[in-house]
């Protein structure tokens, strides 16, 4: 759930009567509207080069494009006017991209005055409130505010409505290796898993541990416990075994495949040197269907 502190300040920025529910608020310095709402040609608008969001989900973008073709753009984007006569997007790049794909010529926009820092804060807050950023994009947004504008971590936290510890923990993710970063970006690891990886003292063990966490579906708590085991002194250089509960269950997977293929409950009982498979059927007609399905099934 988005932090409630992100919900303050839009009325101070734009005025209650011009409040755009799709544009997030900020605790930054007040931003004054400049000529308010207008329809702007899409060719006169350029994206924000400091946009913290780098990944746009193709499926959701396609859905938004289809909606815009039918209903148009319902929530105006927010832009500022640049010195070159073009407008730079402050909030709403996804809507801008979908509108271009839908073949629109213009898009409704709220034009504001905003310096570079305020522009970056607004873009970051919009994405944080919508939970659109992956953990690394969020961390890179914080780092940009610190490096480019000289803000301290507690100031950044106050600006975006996060706790200082949340910002500090997020920034730690930037020390991950490229391979583990890719796993976070692809959604194979959460930020909690990534912090568990960073807690492993020997960097040479981190990538293998990250792959194990992703492949076995560990929870964050389980990943933290696994990292602690890796940090314990090795005994006779024996590798730390993956806990049994995280090892692949071949028979359970085979049982799921059979149930999906046959459309009925399947039970596999495996013993040391033998086993049995139980299949349910419901009447003579269903038994005939089962026999036919068994003859045709390919695992």
Mean pLDDT equals 78
Count of helices? 13
The total count of strands amounts to: 7
As a percent range, the share of strand residues is 5-15%
CATH class of the largest domain: Alpha Beta
What is the string of SSEs from the N terminus onward? Answer: HEEHEEHEHHHHHHHHHEEH
The largest β sheet comes out as: 5 strands, mixed
CATH superfamily of the largest domain: Conserved hypothetical protein from pyrococcus furiosus pfu- 392566-001, ParB domain
Pfam families: HTH_ParB, ParB_N
Protein name: Stage 0 sporulation protein J
Domain ParB-like N-terminal: 38-128
Main location: cytoplasm
Lay out the secondary structure:
Blueprint: H1 10-14, E1 33-41, E2 45-46, H2 58-71, E3 77-81, E4 87-91, H3 93-101, E5 106-112, H4 116-130, H5 135-149, H6 153-160, H7 164-172, H8 178-185, H9 191-198, H10 206-216, H11 220-231, H12 250-262, E6 266-270, E7 275-279, H13 284-296
Parallel strand pairs: 2-4, 3-5
Antiparallel strand pairs: 1-5, 3-4, 6-7
Structural description of this entry:
Its main location: cytoplasm. It is found in: Cytoplasm, Nucleoid. This is Stage 0 sporulation protein J. The chain has helices spanning 10-14, 58-71, 93-101, 116-130, 135-149, 153-160, 164-172, 178-185, 191-198, 206-216, 220-231, 250-262, 284-296; strands at residues 33-41, 45-46, 77-81, 87-91, 106-112, 266-270, 275-279. It has a five-stranded mixed sheet with strand order 1-5-3-4-2. A two-stranded antiparallel ribbon has the order 6-7. Helix content is 47%, strand content 13%. The longest helix has 15 residues, at 116-130. Helix 6 packs across helix 7 and helix 9 runs antiparallel to helix 10 (206-216). The model is unreliable at 1-33 (pLDDT under 50). 29% of the residues are buried. The chain starts with 9 loop residues before the first helix and ends with a helix.
